[in-house]
Design a protein that fits this description.
This protein is mainly α. The chain contains eight helices and no strands. It has helices spanning 2-30, 34-53, 56-64, 84-103, 105-111, 115-118, 125-152, 155-176.
Length: 177
Amino acid sequence: MKKMKSIKKWLFFSVISFFLSSLAIFIALNIQEDTLTVISGVVFWLGFIAGLVFLIPIQKQRKRDPKYKGDDKRLLFLRFFRNKPAIIFDILLIIGAFLLILFHADMILLKLKAFAILEYLPSNAAFISVRDILSPIAFFAFLYSLEMHFLFNGKNYEYVCMHTTWQYNLSLNQEKK
């Protein structure tokens, strides 16, 4: 039981680290000062690396556990909507990707040299100001939900959930006796 609490702590620290890395990019997109942008970049990489490092104890515990029969050869990044947190972040991932494409369609099309389509896109000042405000939010939502997609649809979270269920079932069986 004590090991399970520590595993949940590592998972919590990983979620917080990924949040801080995404928040750093959000701040960097909204700040014009070069020093704060550099600091935000450093915070992004530290948060991202820390989030991955915090998953190592969970992975080590998972690989040592004889009860866990997870197949290590599955491609889990192709899985969506596997549990409640994954459903939330996968929907947010799709919405964030859609908004990023919508807000930056004119730049994407310009780079693709598809000028004929550009006349149909809104190019007035209202659209630009909305894009300037919502684009960093959409990028934050996309980046954080992408990180959470991999976390909540992955083997380590599956292991934590299965282990919690086993502990719960074990305690129920002991109470019956």
